[in-house]
Structure formats: C-alpha cells, structure tokens
C-alpha cells in the first residue's frame, strides 16, 4: 500500500493505492498537511511508502517526520522517467508536469499524448508517439484569472466562479465571468485544435481542479480524470522500482 501526495500551488491532493486501485483520495490545505497525513497513515497502517511530488512551498520536514513509520520519497529531476526529455531547460521543468508526462507515457503507449492540467495554472504537456517529451505551455488557471483582474485593477471586483450564460456580458460582473470562463474554455479548445491539426493518433488527458467543469464545456472530446496526477505518481513510482 502506498500514499501518494501532490503539492500544488493551491491545494494538496493525496491518495492511498493498493496496486493500481485507489482506496481513498483526499484534498486539503497546506496548513493541515501534517495533521491530515498523520490521520491517513493511522487509518492505513499498511502503507509502506509515502511518495511526494511538490511544486508548492511546503517544508520537506513536514513529510520527513513520518520517516520513522515508512519510506519517504520526493520525486525530483534525478529520478528515472519513461520518456526522453527534450525540454531545453529540463531542470526548471515542474516535477508535476514530469509526473503527468510519465503517467501519460506509461498509460497510453505508442501514441501522441497531450496532458492538460487545469489547476492554479493551466499546463499543457506534449509527449509524442516516440516517447519524446517536447514541452507545451503554461497559462493562468481559472481562479488566478479572476484574482488577477481584481488585484491589478482599481475597479474590478473579486468574483468567484460562475458559468456565464452568454458570451456578450452586459454588466461588469457578466463581462468578467464571460472573459474569464469563456476565455479559459476557448483557450483550451484552441490549443487542442492546434495540436490536432499537427498530429494524428492522439489522446488528450484532462486533469486538475477545474477538469470536471471543463469536461462539460470543451467541444473537443477528451479523457477527463481528476486523479490523473496521483495515479501517475503511483505508476511512476512502480516504474522507478522496476527500473532502478
Ligand atoms: N475548493 C476549491 N478550492 C480551490 N480551488 C478550487 C476548489 N474547487 C475547485 N477549484 C478550482 O481548482 C483550481 C485549482 O486546482 P488544483 O488542481 O487544486 O490546483 P493545484 O494543483 O495548482 O494546487 C482553481 O483554479 C479553482 O478554480
Ligand atoms: C507551471 C506550474 C507553476 C504549475 O503548477 P500548478 O498549477 O500545478 O500548481 C509548475 O509546474 C511549475 O512550477 N513549473 C516550473 C516551470 C516549468 O514547468 O517550466
Ligand atoms: K497545473
């Protein structure tokens, strides 16, 4: 049994795996980290490994305190990954993106894969059918768009997510909802269209905090799985064990 933990810039996601099956998954805030992990490990005492991928700013020590109970592994660029990394700055590539790319490579062999992770940021990661990781894109996520409109202007209120019913917003609030939500959806559809024009034999994997909403709104058909990063962490760890 293993416990996987994904530290993003907004929230922490965790899941307990037995083989490839998710036994339970969790979402919590950074300030609850140690308390939550302790509780999970109390409930799943058979966990032998704690596997972490972090792009957020939490102390390593918050995980290392569990070393008495089980093995702790932080994924880094030094680990073995199942793709050829063609990113020109491999050391600055987010470890979350590397894990997503690894999961896509292992789960969907011999095809072009695009992973879209709609979290704090939207990240696009492309791995071609020869398992070359080529890169992708980074842009502001849904909530970040609402927050930046408010934080960098004098007159725009901070709104929370609301699905606009039209693209012509006729009030300040509707204009913001249209710009943020429709802009978000159009951007992702636009990127997917561009990839589709250039590559065939293609799978698109959608994940992150906004995946569920997006799955309903995108015109492109996609494979949506909110747990894809955690599942990929589990798979990449198995891959590491088998290849070290
Ligand atoms: N309860 C929530 N708290 C924060 N963000 C949420 C929540 N529910 C949905 N979201 C959406 O999820 C996104 C963050 O996704 P997530 O995958 O948790 O990010 P990260 O991996 O970067 O921490 C935000 O843009 C927001 O729109
Ligand atoms: C782009 C990210 C901030 C995304 O973080 P997230 O939205 O998952 O919290 C993260 O992958 C990161 O810090 N990347 C480093 C830069 C790069 O990947 O090139
Ligand atoms: K992301």
TrEMBL record:
GO terms for cellular component: cytoplasm. It catalyses: (R)-pantothenate + ATP = (R)-4'-phosphopantothenate + ADP + H(+). It is an enzyme of class 2 (transferase). InterPro entries: ATPase_NBD, Type_III_PanK. ATP binds at residues 6-13, 120. GO terms for molecular function: ATP binding; metal ion binding; pantothenate kinase activity. Pathway: Cofactor biosynthesis; coenzyme A biosynthesis; CoA from (R)-pantothenate: step 1/5. A monovalent cation. Ammonium or potassium. The keyword Metal-binding applies. Pfam families: Pan_kinase. It is found in: Cytoplasm. Residues 23-50 form a coiled coil. K(+) binds at residue 117. The keyword Ribosomal protein does not apply. Its cofactor is NH4(+); K(+). Its EC number is 2.7.1.33. Substrate binds at residues 87, 94-97, 172. GO terms for biological process: coenzyme A biosynthetic process. Keywords: ATP-binding, Coenzyme A biosynthesis, Coiled coil, Cytoplasm, Kinase, Metal-binding, Nucleotide-binding, Potassium, Transferase. It comes from the Bacteria. Homodimer. Catalyzes the phosphorylation of pantothenate (Pan), the first step in CoA biosynthesis. This is Type III pantothenate kinase. The gene is coaX.
């Amino acid at each position: 049994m293993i416990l996987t933990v994904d530290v993003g810039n907004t929230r922490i996601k965790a899941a307990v795996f037995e083989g490839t099956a998710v036994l339970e998954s969790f979402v919590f805030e950074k300030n609850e980290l140690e308390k939550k992990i302790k509780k999970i490990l109390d409930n799943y005492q058979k966990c032998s490994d704690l596997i972490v991928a972090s792009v957020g700013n939490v102390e390593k020590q918050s995980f290392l305190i569990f070393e008495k109970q089980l093995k702790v592994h932080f994924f880094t660029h030094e680990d073995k990954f199942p793709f050829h990394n063609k990113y020109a700055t491999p050391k600055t590539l987010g470890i979350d993106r590397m894990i997503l790319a690894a999961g896509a490579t292992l789960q969907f062999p011999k095809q072009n894969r695009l992973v879209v992770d709609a979290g704090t940021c939207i990240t696009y990661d492309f791995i071609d059918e020869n398992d070359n990781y080529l890169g992708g894109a980074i842009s502001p996520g849904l909530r970040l768009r609402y927050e930046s409109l408010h934080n960098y202007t004098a007159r725009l209120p901070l709104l929370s997510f609301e699905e606009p019913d039209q693209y012509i917003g006729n009030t300040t609030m509707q204009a913001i909802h249209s710009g943020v939500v429709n802009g978000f959806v159009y951007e992702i559809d636009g990127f997917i269209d561009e990839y589709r024009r250039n590559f065939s034999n293609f799978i698109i994997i959608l994940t992150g905090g906004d995946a569920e909403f997006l799955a309903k709104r995108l015109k492109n058909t996609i494979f949506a799985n909110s747990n894809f990063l955690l599942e990929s962490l589990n798979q990449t760890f198995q891959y590491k064990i088998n290849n070290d």
